[in-house]
Amino acid sequence: MISSPNGVLALLLSVNILNYVDRQIVYALLPLISGELALTDAQAGSLASAFMIIYMLAAPPIAWLADSRGRKPWIAGGVGLWSVATGAAAFATGFPSLFLSRTVVGIGEACYGAISPAFVAERFPLEKRGRALAFFSLAIPVGSALGYAGGGKLGEILGWRHAFLVVGLPGLLLAALCLLLPADAPHRATPPALTGYREVWSVRTFRMATYAGAGMTFALGGFAVWMPTFFHRAWGLSVGHAGLLFGGVTVAGGLAGSLIGGFLSDRLRRTDRTADLLVSGWGLLLGMPLAAAAIAAPSLKAAIVCLFLAETMLFLNMGPLNAAIVSVTRVEKRSMAFAANIFVIHLLGDAASPAIIGWGSDHFGLAPSLLAACLALGVGGGVCLYARKGFGVDADAAEAIA
What we know:
Blueprint: H1 5-28, H2 30-37, H3 41-69, H4 72-88, H5 95-113, H6 116-121, H7 126-137, H8 139-158, H9 160-168, H10 170-178, H11 193-201, H12 204-234, H13 239-268, H14 275-296, H15 300-314, H16 318-327, H17 334-348, H18 353-364, H19 366-373, H20 375-386, H21 391-401
Helix pairs in contact: 1-7, 1-8, 1-9, 1-10, 1-12, 3-5, 3-17, 3-18, 4-5, 4-9, 4-10, 7-13, 7-16, 8-9, 8-13, 12-13, 12-17, 12-18, 12-19, 12-20, 13-14, 13-15, 14-15, 14-16, 14-20, 18-19
């Protein structure tokens, strides 16, 4: 039943998988799109930046409206909007129209990304929340892998335009199913938008966790856009093979990391209430040198092994870091908290990194640009561990008011 906690999780996990398919497919298709539309690397990278800038700008007002007026309609409407916009990319006649379609996808996904984590989390008790959000976050590696691998193959077989149409259609069915989700639990009155966001940002642990997420997002956002192209250029793989390879590694490492991270955080939380931040921080710190090794590897086989290990470490935080945000946020502001998180991590992260890496690639080469981006992972890991100080005070305050 969709109304049960597990039913809600199953449906929104499915939607989240499609979310990442529609977000990432364009990157698997970049060599084909660039060839037909004559895009520079800087223009190709700016497609990701366009999506992220609109995504982060749209999230705060949408989240405030959802917290104050109900989340379910925004979830369903967002899924429908981004699905239509994804399909519309098939009719792009040049860079401007493709750029526009990606901005509209950003608006639709902002409706979902700012609201759905809190919608899921509130249906599970604290002792199960890390695992529930880890399962929800499995969509990131699974959806990304399907976007890369499936998108690359569809592009080779049907052409990049038809690939956009094929992945856009399922979202319309899922949008209809989202209308069957249960209504929100009654909340206290939501404060005015500026007041609410000011209160959310005043929580120290939330700020630190968000800065840590920004470091991770800067690097991972750049890798998501450019690694298939890197494999295509560095190792001479076809577009389809490069997308399939990167997608396969992403889903394997992402599944392993997400499940291990959720299990570890729930297990360690019995003796250390900062476990979510502990697991997340060490995952980022360990993932940094492994990601660099994948880029600088002397052989394709070594690159694949290092990339798998890196992604396993980096995906440890997917459930725990969101669980930490929920723990230090009052219930009537949780969509706003995730919206603020989205705004900052993308403003400081992948709103700029794909274009920056693309610019660096045009001037210095793709591999050096990707290696430089790895440094952001270390920054994120350090900040995440630093956020443990004061977590208990912030979590107690949020629980006392709820």
